[in-house]
Design goal:
The complex is a heterodimer of chains A (168) and B (680). Chain A has 7 helices and 9 strands; from the N terminus they run βαβαβααβαβββββαα. Chain A has 168 residues and is of the alpha/beta class. Chain A has a single domain, classed as Rossmann fold, CATH 3.40.50. In chain A, strands 1, 2, 3, 4, 5 and 9 form a 6-stranded parallel β-sheet that branches. The longest helix of chain A is centred in the last third of the chain and has 15 residues, at 152-166. Chain A is globular, with a radius of gyration of 14 Å. By secondary structure, chain B is of the alpha/beta class. Chain B has 3 domains: 14-261, Thiamin diphosphate (ThDP)-binding fold, Pyr/PP domains (Rossmann fold); 354-534, Rossmann fold; 550-678, Rossmann fold, CATH 3.40.50.920. In chain B, the strands form 4 sheets. A 7-stranded mixed β-sheet of chain B has the order 9-8-10-11-13-12-17, sandwiched between helices. In chain B, helix 18 (567-580) links the parallel strand 15 (558-562) and strand 16. Classes of the chains: A alpha/beta (168), B alpha/beta (680). The A-B interface holds A 57-59, 61, 64, 67-68, 71-72, 74-75, 94, 96-97 and B 8-10, 184, 199-201, 204, 218, 221, 248, 250, 275-276, 281, 284-285, 288-289.
Chain lengths: 168, 680
């Protein structure tokens, strides 16, 4: 597999755990962990295959580390980049904006020409609205630690299998 | 979220970014410093910190154009006020309640920032009730085709108030140019927003409203807030409809200095709200995208510190309010009648009924002043002109722009009157406060608000409103159709209360009310609307000044002090006693309850030495208690007997005619009291 980055905030706990689980599942030296807290245009553009950990804050917002990188992303040419997103949300506590952060990021990346991969079915989740939803799919992997934590392992494994087919 | 991104960290010019940063730094420095004034016992005992709302507050102030727009900030809007142009010194003058506080000379609470001369309105602590003023003012902007919008700002929890619903419903229905901003920090003091309403974003409760656009933005982010507010304002102008902007904020500190948020927020939350500090984020963005160097930011930080230091010094040396000034600006100045200084006339002619007097005077005043308006429930639809036809024919003559129906929302009726009168001091607004006086209670919130607007702005805003209320019983109306409520209404300084009985006095007082500055409750004894006994000749230009009682019957043996429905009863009794040679009763019709003609009361007490106070309202808690108490304090030595009172029983007014008769006062009861008192 080509060099692939998993970019997430190293200051997080749950997102970091999922990121590590993804890396384990890939079991591939080409997968590198990159800290979103000090991401730069240069570092981001160094990869053609990227997995981004994007949680949702407040009532449907990006966490600061991503939100503050959006102005840079909005001026990048991301054609030719394959990007997969995983997001953490709480479908019971915040059913009105489940995984909105992932959805916001997906919109930004698509607008810049990135190819999003790794969509997953919404079946098995209960929520009211999500900016990450398109039809019957999420625009990435939906992780709900609070309510479906026991399914994380299985969901990550299936998603990584799916990504192997999308990534080169 | 805005659709167009007019502002961004990469492309907004550096001068603008510097101005914003400076405003944010000065605002935050004062926000952080405010609690020290309390600790040092200087003042600012109420401080609601805005930290965490920085993005949206900066944006509100920046889109506000003081030449054309109007702004209604709420008590947490310190940066809004500063961004709109209120200086650091003016913020502190308000905080420490100095005489030179531009909001109102220290008369209103601290942290209630305003500058009425710049259309930054002095708003209530009854949070969110200014949404109705915003709607009323926007109604004026629309009617006068004035460019500009009204911006109303409030916390998300106050949207639970019914009056906010009324305001948004009205703005939507009337398509008024208002931006309602909800600053959502998740809490109403300690109450989480989940306890307020089911939708997490309360703006979504209004998603079914027609002619209403809803925006959501990140109130912690300067650019998202700026883009959203700019787009919202343009939307209001382009589409002539109101909008809601819900801004997601955080409250970094406690609700106010009387709250301890550590009692209900855990360490995790207290930590992350610090991490999401909007000012820190803005600073990081400026550095990250190389718009400013660390040194440039530090220079601005130092400038801000110096500005706040100088503002503090100036504010500390400003004069304090003068305790002798407390009676200034309680009630705005009334219209002065030069022709009828005592409110008396010798006109002869065809008697007119009270209802004709009201209808004709309203029409005459609407012809006299093109800036007069009237609205109320059921007031004008085709041939109908009010539940009692007082406004009959007005819409036909003056049109729907000046004479129109209101929704069944009494608070909105009064609240929008208050708001509309803010547009221009020449405007004179008449409202039917409710279909019947005893339906007025929902509007008490706005009446109380209106009662202290003039005082708390130190004379900068006078709500020029006449509130008409069809009052009282004797019609078999029962509850909500037969009470008279002046006993409660006269307890508020800042509001005049008049209660005529006869047609000429009704005409004269109504003219004076409409021509005066300030708010007058005009109580109409509806049982007398068509009564021949209170029909009188009326000069076309008759005026009755406030605070001028009228002797309806001269007498020497006993004084009956009365008003409203009971005046003609007392007059009839006086005539009867005279005819029968029993006694000469003097009947003093107060006409005005507030202000009260104490000189006339004193004169009649001196003349007869015996006083019976008669009114329709309950004896217990009725206005007569105030009259009796005043006489006891000021005229005791002239009395030959106790001051007696006749009024209704301390019960609601029953619907059955049998019950109503048993409850309300009548001539028999008055006669019995008179006879008893004459024995002294």
């Amino acid at each position: 597999m080509k060099k692939t980055a998993i970019i997430y905030s190293f200051n997080t706990k749950k997102t970091a755990k999922i990121a590590e689980r993804i890396k384990e599942a890939f079991n591939d030296d080409q997968v590198e962990m990159v800290n979103a807290e000090d991401i730069t245009e240069e570092k981001f553009l160094a990869y053609d295959q990227i997995i981004m950990g994007v949680s949702t804050w407040f009532d449907g917002e990006l966490p600061n580390h991503w939100d503050e990188f959006v102005p840079a992303l909005e001026e990048m040419d991301l054609k030719g980049k394959k990007i997969a997103l995983f997001g953490l949300g709480d479908q019971v506590g915040y059913p009105e904006n489940f995984l909105d952060g992932l959805g916001i990021m997906a919109e930004v990346l698509e607008a810049q020409g990135a190819e999003l991969v790794g969509f997953t079915p919404v079946e098995g989740y209960t929520f009211e609205r999500s900016r990450a939803r398109r039809g019957d799919e999420f625009l990435g992997l939906a992780i709900d630690y609070e309510n479906q934590g026991s399914m994380n392992k299985e969901r990550v494994a299936a998603w990584v299998d799916q990504l192997r087919k999308s990534f080169n | 979220m805005a659709e167009k991104k007019q502002y961004s960290i990469k492309h907004t010019d550096k001068e603008t970014l510097a101005r914003w940063l400076k405003l944010m730094l000065v605002g935050r420095a004062i926000d952080d410093r405010a609690p020290n004034y309390l600790k040092q016992a200087i003042g600012w005992s109420y401080h609601a910190p805005y930290a965490g709302h920085d993005g949206i507050q900066l944006a509100i102030g920046q889109v506000f154009d003081r030449e054309n727009d109007h702004l209604f900030p709420y008590y947490r809007d310190m940066l809004t006020a500063h961004s709109a142009g209120i200086t650091a010194e003016e913020l502190i003058l308000n905080g420490i309640s100095k005489d030179t506080d531009v909001a109102g000379g220290g008369r209103h609470m601290s942290n209630h920032f305003a500058k009425p001369e710049w259309n930054i309105h002095n708003t209530s602590s009854c949070t969110g009730n200014h949404t109705q003023h915003a709607a009323g003012l926007a109604r004026a902007l629309k009617k006068y085709k004035f460019p500009g919008v009204v911006i109303s700002s409030q916390g998300e929890s106050s949207v639970s108030e019914g009056y906010v619903y009324e305001a948004i419903n009205g703005a939507s229905n009337e398509r008024l140019p208002v931006i309602f901003v909800f600053q959502d920090n998740g809490y109403g003091i300690s109450v989480p927003k989940a306890d307020q309403t089911a939708n997490r974003k309360v703006a979504d409760n209004f998603s079914g409203f027609k002619y209403l656009k809803i925006y959501h933005c990140n109130g912690k982010d300067v650019f998202d807030s700026m883009n959203t507010m700019a787009e919202a304002k343009q939307y209001v102008i382009d589409h002539e409809t109101p909008v809601i902007v819900q801004a997601n904020c955080i409250r970094i500190h406690s609700h106010s200095n009387s709250d301890r948020h550590e009692l209900y927020r855990d360490d995790y939350e207290l930590n992350y709200v610090q991490e999401y500090d909007p000012l820190a984020k803005f600073r990081r963005l400026l550095l990250r995208y190389e718009r400013f160097t660390e040194e440039e930011i530090e220079a601005l930080e130092n400038e801000a510190k110096e500005e706040v230091k100088a503002a503090h010094k100036a504010a500390m040396s400003a004069p304090d309010p003068d305790p002798d000034s407390i009676h200034d600006f309680v009630v705005p100045e009334p219209y002065i009648s030069e022709k009828y200084p005592e409110g008396l006339h010798q006109h002869e002619g065809e008697p007119k009924k009270l209802i004709e007097a009201l209808n004709e005077t309203l029409k005459a005043e609407f012809r006299h002043n093109p800036d007069t308006y009237i609205w109320g429930q059921d007031i004008a639809y085709k041939e109908k002109g009010g539940i009692f036809n007082v406004t009959k024919g007005m819409q036909q003559e003056f049109g729907k722009e000046r004479v129109f129906n209101a929704p069944i929302a009494e608070d909105y009726i009064v609240g929008t009157a208050n708001g509309m009168s803010r547009f221009n001091d020449k405007l004179r607004i008449v409202v039917e406060g409710a279909e019947f006086a005893d339906y007025f209670w929902p509007a008490m919130e706005q009446l109380v608000e209106t009662s202290h607007d003039y005082w708390r702005t130190k004379g900068q805003f006078s709500p020029n409103i006449t509130i008409r209320l069809a009052s009282g019983g004797y019609i078999g109306g029962g509850l909500y159709h037969s009470q008279t409520i002046e006993g409660a209404l006269t307890t508020f300084p800042g509001i005049r209360v008049v209660y005529p009985s006869y047609a000429d006095d009704a005409a004269g007082l109504l003219r004076t009310s409409i021509r005066s500055r300030g708010t007058t409750l005009f109580l109409e004894p509806k049982a007398l609307y068509n009564a021949p006994k209170t029909a009188t000749p009326i000069p076309d230009d008759f005026e009755v000044p406030f605070g001028k009682a009228r002797i309806r019957r001269e007498g020497t043996d006993l004084s009956i002090i009365t008003y409203g429905n009971t005046t003609p009863m007392c007059v009839e009794l006086a005539d009867q006693f005279r005819e029968e040679g029993k006694a000469e009763l003097e009947v003093l019709d107060l006409r005005s309850l507030s202000p009260l003609d104490t000189e006339a009361i004193l004169r009649t007490v001196k003349k007869t030495g015996k006083v019976l106070v008669v009114h329709e309202d309950k004896v217990f808690g009725g206005f007569g208690g105030e009259v009796a108490a005043w006489i006891m304090e000021e005229a005791f030595e002239y009395l030959d007997g106790p001051v007696k009172r006749v009024g209704s029983a301390f019960t609601p007014v029953g619907f059955s005619r049998i019950l109503e008769k048993a409850i309300l006062p009548d001539i028999k009861r008055i006669e019995s009291a008179v006879s008893e008192l004459l024995k002294y």
